[in-house]
Amino acid sequence: MELKKLEVPTSSITEVKKSPMDVFQQARDSGTGVYIFNREKIAGVMLTQQQYEDLLNELAALREQLKVEDEPLVISPALEGLEQFAETIRQSLVTGASISAKNLDERMVAFGFITKKTGFGGVVEMLNELKETGKLIYHLRKKANDKSIIAEVIGEPDNQTQLFDKIIVRKIYLDSKER
Questions:
Q1: Domain coordinates of the chain in residue numbers?
Q2: Cα–Cα distance between 124 and 101 in angstroms, integer?
Q3: What is the dotted CATH code of the domain comprising 10-63?
């Protein structure tokens, strides 16, 4: 297997300590960030202020382009009183953006949802479910008014990345079922 060479400039943490301005100049001259290595591992990336601001502006523009006309988070009318909870989920999960399946699962668990996908191989199970059904199902641990709350995360695998576990969340439905 051939190792892929980085197509961006690199520097060491030692060089950054000696002269950080030289590394910023290297980033400015190359028009891209400079990967900073510490003991043969990437410790971070240095960008100029302009490069960083350009990235933030580009990200904001891309998010604006990806906005879906209808609401990315749909709440069942039976879930009155959970608007604040839904807004918290909406702020945490940016629809249209790529997210790792593991990160999505961790965020949903942090909101109090549970899933059957646990342990080793859970990410693979999530991706298989997403490919088969187009959605991932989560159940809220706590009941609201004797109803169990279900979140359906509608999405698709992100085929634009080389990482196998990236998905794009398109919409989230919150609904309830009688127990």
A1: 10-63, 69-178
A2: 9
A3: 3.40.1620
Q: pLDDT per residue over 107-144, tens digit each?
A: 888 888 887 665 556 777 888 888 888 888 888 877 66
Token pair for residue 8?
């961006």
